[in-house]
Amino acid sequence: DPFYRQLPKVELHAHLNGSVSSETMEQLIARKPQLNIEHSMTAIRSGQRRTLDECFQVFKVIHQLVDSEEDILMVAKAVIQEFAADGVKYLELRSTPREETKTGLSKRRYVETVIEAIHQCKQEGVDIDVRFLVAIDRRNGTKVAMETVKLAEDFMLSSNGVVVGLDLSGDPTVGHGRDLLPALQKARNCGLKLALHLSEIPSQKEESELLLDLPPDRIGHGTFLHPEVGGSDTLVDKVCKQKIPIELCLTSNVTGQTVPSYDQHHFKYWYTRGHPCVLCTDDKGVFCTDLSQEYQLAASTFRLSQEDVWDLSQQAIHCSFAPEPVKQQLEQKWAKLRPVCL
Ligand code: 5GP
Questions:
Q1: ω before 215 within 30° of 0 (cis)?
Q2: Domain boundaries in the chain?
Q3: pLDDT at residue 45, rounded to an integer
Q4: In testing the pocket of ligand 1, which one of 19, 25, 59 has its CB within 8 Å of the most ligand atoms?
Q5: Is any atom of ligand 1 closer than 6 Å to the C-beta of 67?
Q6: Among residues 212, 220, 211, which one has the least CA distance to residue 282?
Q7: Within the chain, where are the H helices?
Q8: Which one of the listed residues 200, 207, 247, 294 is annotated catalytic?
Q9: For 70-98, what is the mean pLDDT?
Q10: What is the pTM of this model?
Q11: 2-341 belongs to which CATH class?
């Protein structure tokens, strides 16, 4: 349906290396034949189901393919162009800085390269505003988390507003938020916005209670926050009272089997409460989707009208970490496009 592609959209939850398209993946595989990686190892076709653990194995394969400055520049530019082609007008990309001794890549250079890709796209006139969230992989513990915050803080001050915040992600079965709390507090205090993966699996109740007191500026997934799935009223109250927007990724959650089916997705719980919900792709490459498809999926599953869908995409502007004047510009863009789309 062309409506969803035409719809101006805001993407707030996209992991760089999970967003690499099959076309770009082909190029990377061709560049590194010695790795013997097949395309079926880097993406999960629609309709297939994997455990969350199997999904994390896919990232390990992709990281082998994307391990130099040149690779990062290429994938970041391609991902930005693909989001723009899908009608995304504002994008917050997130990625975990990696160092690779083999190619001489440092974490600082990693971040600089993503920023360089964002600049190049802007210079080339790609119609999208892109910001960057520096990601902490929870498996790496306290010390690395602290170093990542320092890195993010440096770039927040030197990147002309490109680096706006911090993401907490990585395998939810590994590590505990309590060990990362000081780093996250430090990030908050220096003005970095926080987008945290919370309650992605049932066992994270205690951790979520702790992290919700920071509080985060946005929640990733929040699949198991509500009492019906083993969360609690306390958790829901904390989210509602502080009006913390939730980033919801339908295809990712159903494919990774943390949600049994589309109609049982927790989008319904939060949306019917009038809570700020933002539809996102998570990993458009790995899960073979795009943001238009996610909007269409939500609309058909939960019987949303085109007006409802429009409001959902417009509301996302105000859940972003963009400075106020940028939000105003986006509002104007939406106002201009409304009569064309609806
Ligand atoms: P990168 O940070 O390398 O650009 O993107 C891949 C990384 O994002 C993964 O290694 C993982 O740390 C994180 N990631 C991607 N998708 C998910 C997800 O669905 N859940 C969590 N918790 N982390 C994810």
A1: yes
A2: 2-341
A3: 86
A4: 59
A5: no
A6: 220
A7: 2-6, 22-31, 52-65, 69-85, 107-123, 141-158, 181-189, 205-212, 233-241, 250-255, 267-272, 291-302, 306-317, 324-341
A8: 200
A9: 98
A10: 0.98
A11: alpha beta
